[in-house]
Amino acid sequence: MEIQDLFIRQRKYIFTLLSLYVLGYGFTSYQSVFAGLIFGTSLSLFNLWLLARKMNNFGDSVVQGKKVRSLGSLSRLATGALAVIVAMEYPDRINLMFTILGLMTAYIVIMIDFFVQSFQSRK
């Protein structure tokens, strides 16, 4: 269950970032920036959950010798498109650029987590 352990650890990091974004939304005058980060990062967490679930199914299929299905790229792309559409519909409330940055959060967290775990395994 290593994929599940990775997902749990990365989910904790993303929840920490989300809590910081909520504090920024509440205590600064940059509500549209933090709303974009919150919205994009929330959808990024959803995409990470989809990826973890699909990878578990992928691993189970390989072990059982079944035909391997897609890892769900289309659904993750559709989530990104939804985020952009919503941010463009409400530009005064949700900043588009920070929504896109929020969408990339899970991938940034995955890379940082990889480097941290690699560094810790060398010790």
UniProtKB/TrEMBL annotation:
<dbReference type="GO" id="GO:0005886">
    <property type="term" value="C:plasma membrane"/>
</dbReference>
<dbReference type="Pfam" id="PF03899">
    <property type="entry name" value="ATP-synt_I"/>
</dbReference>
<dbReference type="InterPro" id="IPR039072">
    <property type="entry name" value="ATP_synth_I_Bacilli"/>
</dbReference>
<feature type="transmembrane region" description="Helical">
    <location>
        <begin position="34"/>
        <end position="52"/>
    </location>
</feature>
<dbReference type="InterPro" id="IPR005598">
    <property type="entry name" value="ATP_synth_I"/>
</dbReference>
<keyword id="KW-1133">Transmembrane helix</keyword>
<feature type="transmembrane region" description="Helical">
    <location>
        <begin position="96"/>
        <end position="116"/>
    </location>
</feature>
<keyword id="KW-0472">Membrane</keyword>
<feature type="transmembrane region" description="Helical">
    <location>
        <begin position="73"/>
        <end position="90"/>
    </location>
</feature>
<keyword id="KW-0812">Transmembrane</keyword>
<protein>
    <submittedName>
        <fullName>ATP synthase protein I</fullName>
    </submittedName>
</protein>
<keyword id="KW-1003">Cell membrane</keyword>
<feature type="transmembrane region" description="Helical">
    <location>
        <begin position="12"/>
        <end position="28"/>
    </location>
</feature>
